[in-house]
Amino acid sequence: MKRAACAGLLLLVTACGYDRQVLGARDSTGAAGAGSVEQLATVSAGQSHACASRASAIWCWGDDSGAGRHVLLSPTPLEPSGPVAQIGAGERHTCSLRSTAVWCWGNNDLGQLGVGDLEPRADPARVGTLAATMALGVGYTHSCAVSGQGSLWCWGSNTWGELGDGDFSATTGFPSPRRIGTETDWFAITAGQYHSCGLRRPGTLWCWGIADERLGLGSTSDTPLLEPKQVGSASDWVSVDAGQQDGCGIRANGTLWCWGSQGPDPLAVLEPTQIGTDEDWSSVSTDVFARCALKEDHSLWCWGRNVEGQLGLGDTTDRDEPTCVPDPPLWTEVSVGRFATCGLDVEGELWCAGENSSGQLGQGDTRRRNVMTRVELP
Questions:
Q1: Among 60-69, 219-228, 348-357, which is the least confidently predicted range?
Q2: Do residues 326 and 18 touch, judged by C-beta distance below 8 A?
Q3: CA–CA separation, 52 vs 43, rounded Å?
Q4: Alpha carbon of residue 80 to chain centroid
Q5: Adjacent-strand bridge partners of 341
């Protein structure tokens, strides 16, 4: 029923003259295609701030007090320094992957910037000696990266073993990247709150950290899981995202799976469970009891907690299952933050919805929106 409704919406959009050449505007790497206008490349929503990039430029807005800029009600540019491939907003810090090197800025009380000390940075600083990085995962107060050789490195808070190096510290973090294991077959990494998950070739899923439902291992423990452990036996995972107390992933057949807590009331799901029966999911993002995912037709679907209107559905009613976000109709990326969600449409335009008490919607004010609202960049 939902599939038919969303399909009808897309047909209506095309009929009304909004056929946006979905596959022609961008190539498979997400870069702007020949002859197209320069588009935003990536966006990430954190706890109370968000950042987006285009080519070598990065804009951030919201509560960026960890970087010494305080509250930014509108997108503010950072100094450019190379093409941006990926960006991740944490609790009060941000990291970006630029030209295969990782740069971080913001709060650094637990070493989450990976620069060898605990001093905050207002401007991007290069992380240790990491080079040829191909994947980046930014959590609440820790971060991880996969090198071009497939090795895994993590830094920052380690209260519940979220770094995965076999150790943990309840009071201090680790300000320099630490090699996690000796494996060289990692190809994806995501960091949540007190836990991390990653993918190893050919497509096995591994999680570690606080040993509750968010690891998807089928059971819980009072003892933190200090090293990566395989989740289930499937070897066809293609993507994974870790939220506050949950995780979601997509398998090679296009099915969507989630585990952990989706809200304060429902029972926790202890192992990956398929969401619906559709087989055309392409990406997923999750955070505080809210989830959004894209389908191959570029439609956006959101569900879970909606107390601040972060699902972008025009109200503040929670949803138990994926519901199509009607406007804009075609998307290329979505990022779910603490109580706000941001995404990019196929024209490279930026949209956000949800809580705005710290200006995390980039609208120049602090009024929340329960529909996706366009963010104007200077």
A1: 60-69
A2: no
A3: 4
A4: 22
A5: 336, 353
Burial 157-179 (b: 16+ CB within 10 A, else e): bbbbbbbbbeebeeeebbbbbbe
Of 254, 297, 295, 292, which Cα lies nearest the Cα of 13? 297
Q: Residues 9-28: pLDDT tens digits?
A: 443 333 333 232 222 222 22
How many residues can be counted in the chain?
A: 378
Mean pLDDT computed over every residue of the chain? 88
Q: Classify residue 115 by burial, with Cβ atoms within 10 Å: 0-12, 13-18, 19+.
A: buried
> Residue 358: CA atoms inside 13 Å, Cβ hemisphere, count?
22
Q: Domain 41-367 falls in which CATH fold?
A: Methylamine Dehydrogenase; Chain H (2.130.10)
126 phi/psi in degrees, rounded to 5: -70, 140
Q: Which residues pair with 242 in a beta bridge?
A: 247
**Strand (E) or helix (H) holding 2:** helix 2-15
pLDDT for the residue numbered 28? 28
**Section 260-280 average pLDDT:** 87
Residue from 112, 73, 74, 119 nearest 94 by CA: 112
pLDDT band at 230 (very low <50, low <70, confident <90, very high): very high
| Largest pairwise CA distance in the chain | 58
What amino acid is encoded at 147 in this protein? S
Task: Indicate the domain borders of the chain.
Answer: 41-367
**pTM score of the predicted model:** 0.90
Antiparallel, parallel or unpaired: β 237-242 and 246-251: antiparallel
CB neighbours (10 Å) of residue 315? 12
> Contact 31/17 with Cβ under 8 angstroms?
no
Name the band, by pLDDT with cuts 50, 70 and 90, for residue 5.
very low
In sequence order, what are the residues at sequence separation of 6 or more whose Cβ sits closer than 8 angstroms to the Cβ of residue 267? none
